Amino acid sequence: MSGIGERYQQETKYTREDLYGRARQRHRRAAPFKDYEEPLAVIPLPEPELGGNVDLWEALRHRRSRRSYNHAVALRSEVLAALLWATQGISAGKGEILFRTAPSAGALYPVETYLSVRAVETLQPGLYHFRPEHFDLELLKKGDHSRELTAAALAQNMVQQAQVTFIWSAIVARALWKYEDRAYRYIYLDAGHIAQNLYLAGEALGLGVCAIGALFDDEINGLFDLDGTDETIVYMATVGVRAR
Ligand SMILES: Cc1cc2nc3c(=O)[nH]c(=O)nc-3n(C[C@H](O)[C@H](O)[C@H](O)COP(=O)(O)O)c2cc1C
Fold first, then answer.
1. Which residues face 127 on adjacent strands?
2. Domains plus CATH for the chain?
3. C-alpha distance from residue 29 to each of 80, 103, 173, 192, 235 (Å)
4. Residues 127-180: pLDDT tens digits?
5. Closest Cα to atom 27, ligand 1: which residue?
6. What is the 71 CA–ligand 1 centroid distance (Å)?
7. Does residue 23 have a pLDDT over 60?
8. 156 lines ligand 1 (CB under 6 A)
């Protein structure tokens, strides 16, 4: 008996024999955007500061996972806006589809972005949800949650030092109706593209970024009130002002 990973890989392969022959499972279509009914506040984001003067080739060459941050200073909100735009900014529209800076299988965009803000000028510490179509933040919980988040990330201390941590979840139904169980493959790939955009944007802006896959899923789901099934954490990344 093979493990679940191997079975998943085998059972979600497209083959010439059953690509069109499989019985459709009829999953419901999910709304393309998420809005909270009663966020504590809605905060418009400033114009992204797309500075840095680093060209793509340099950013690729120098990109590293950076885990040492200067805890004491705050990130400017224009810089945070640039990072959000780089990861999930809307860069073109066609009919009902709003295309983003990162690619997404079927342009279904199942990945949602949350932030744990510890030190960003003009933003109070708290947990936020990013809305790409409005380019704003919904405040979900007030206060610095970086300690709980650190514990949920297997005690990786960089989370507590980071000015902000990006938390990416997936609303699985957005991809499931089209791709069925194969959707999970695409969700993880989508998240990878988003994180790489964050890495490169961070590099261009002289910030430190580190991806985090080592995390207690349900502790993070709990922090953001996600059920862990319909919507579940998939990935995280810290962003910090580099320690000199
Ligand atoms: C899917 C994924 C998960 C990762 N999870 C962690 C993590 O939990 N903690 C960490 O310190 N680094 C994590 N990393 C960063 C890797 O350790 C890092 O990319 C690798 O050591 C190569 O170094 P570089 O990114 O500086 O090139 C992760 C990277 C990826 C792509």
1. 116, 141
2. 43-241 (3.40.109.10)
3. 31, 20, 6, 23, 23
4. 999 999 999 999 999 999 999 999 999 999 999 999 999 999 999 999 999 999
5. 64
6. 21
7. no
8. yes
